[in-house]
Sequence to fold (226 residues):
Amino acid sequence: LAKTTQPISMDSYEGQEVNITCSHNNIATNDYITWYQQFPSQGPRFIIQGYKTKVTNEVASLFIPADRKSSTLSLPRVSLSDTAVYYCLVGEDSGAGSYQLTFGKGTKLSVIP
Amino acid sequence: DTAVSQTPKYLVTQMGNDKSIKCEQNLGHDTMYWYKQDSKKFLKIMFSYNNKELIINETVPNRFSPKSPDKAHLNLHINSLELGDSAVYFCASSQVAGTGQSTFGSGTRLTVV
Fold:
């Protein structure tokens, strides 16, 4: 399973754009890059997923360079409610419809008023 | 309308007891998982079931036994509870042949005293 490395914590002011970068040097050809958000006392929540280039949804954008050895989650104009832990992970297809996620330590984002 | 629901939310029990955590999903997903999040917030997969069949069984003590009566339910039974079993346990589900977009429950905080 590919290992991921991301900053332990980040601070940002409200209204700013936040970019969280994750490195995954040994990502496999079939691996997707997925980001989850976790609030205290809640389960992780899927944010965005990509394989290469750029993916955008209503919540965030995900930038993946051609070599796929890193990825950047971009949160536009963060608010206090975006304070959470963000996990970057690459998964492995375990067969029979099962996809194994390996969570790292995550990045604790603190949004400051 | 909860997509993945776990019961109970909190569980406090003595060492040596046997306890169960129930999980149900109403998303029509074929694959369900159990994850464990320890005190350091590391989230690690324990089991994966696809259509009631065990797919992944990570290095977990055999005191932990998952039971899947149907594809919408995946219960976790733990025998002879130990202090080290104290953690938050998350149930999750994903679509067949999914690519990592799992939906997590809100967790069960197990405290063994």
